[in-house]
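I would like you to sit down with the record closing this message with an eye to the fold:
=====
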Amino acid sequence: MSDTKPDIVFYGSPVSPFVRKVAAVCIEKNIPFEIEGVDVFNPPQWFSDISPMKRIPVMRDRSIAEEGTHGTIADSSAISSYIERKHPLPALYCTDAFAHGRALALEEYADTTLAATGGLGIFRPIFFSVIQGKEPDLDKSRATWAEDMQSIFAYLDKELEGRTFCTGDSVSIADISITCVLMQIALVAEISLGDYPALAAHYDRMIARPSIAGPYTKADAMVRKALPERFDLT
């Protein structure tokens, strides 16, 4: 058995949807990688040096440098684009100019609007409260689900109507981004998408993929230690 480490290492945690996003990119492309845990609440100095926004993930390409700031990239979108450029097949970015732009726009929507709403409004009020020894803030989570998430679901459902994936018949970075963030909510709450058939079908299609299911299983195992059951927010 070889003890050689893979070139690609992600600093972060599988509980982060953005770590799972870049992991999914590697799995789709059959690229070896590893995840090295980092405490982002009390990060070591070496991590602060390579993560100017103090966020995860940060990627290191060991073929460039095994330590220091050289060979590192912060931000999941920049990392994914780097991996695509270095390992172009199978492609996760569209060759058609408009489809490419559309995929990037949906990726950004997932990484900002969807992530902020679901993360700050649902995941954190539940999971962060529990790990701090507090009662989960279900009032805030249910209000976010009812008042904020429905318009997001409606937008994504409209964008996916009549489509297998966001940009056609093959998976793109947009599909991965949307699903990884939706599954962040699924770590703490039951996901009910019955009113949004196109989004629901897309979600079911994506969560069956090994690139999505594998990293999520690891995250779920970690979350279940503190939170045995998910909540119904409806």
Remarks:
- The chain has eight helices and four strands.
- Strands lie at 8-12, 33-37, 58-61, 72-74.
- The chain has a mean pLDDT of 96.
- The first strand starts at residue 8 and ends at 12.
